[in-house]
Design goal:
This protein is mostly helical. It has a domain of 38 residues. It is built from four helices and no strands. Helix 1 packs antiparallel against helix 3.
Length: 86
């Protein structure tokens, strides 16, 4: 049994689609804490509304809080010319 009707599920999915950082904007937005945080909050909302997955929702929310507090930082993309090792 679903807790939410199909309209709410579709709205949550649409919001998530609008807020997630797509591959074209990734390098421009990956270090912006507001963008990263809202993306994670939206994912948490979808986890709760669509699947009732509390554990993943909590993980997404905790990561979002870390971005807002400035604890999380973006790491550069590794390349063959970079000395960065993940």
């Amino acid at each position: 049994m679903k807790n939410y009707d199909e309209d709410i599920i579709q709205l949550a999915q649409k919001l998530n689609d609008k807020l997630k950082i797509n591959h074209l904007d990734w390098h421009k937005l990956k270090s912006k804490k507001i963008n990263r945080s809202t993306e994670l909050i939206s994912a948490a909302l979808c986890q709760l509304i669509i699947s009732g997955n509390e554990k993943d929702a909590i993980n997404y929310l905790n990561e979002s809080i870390k971005w807002l507090k400035g604890i999380n930082e973006d790491k550069p993309c590794p390349s063959k010319h970079s000395s960065f090792q993940s």
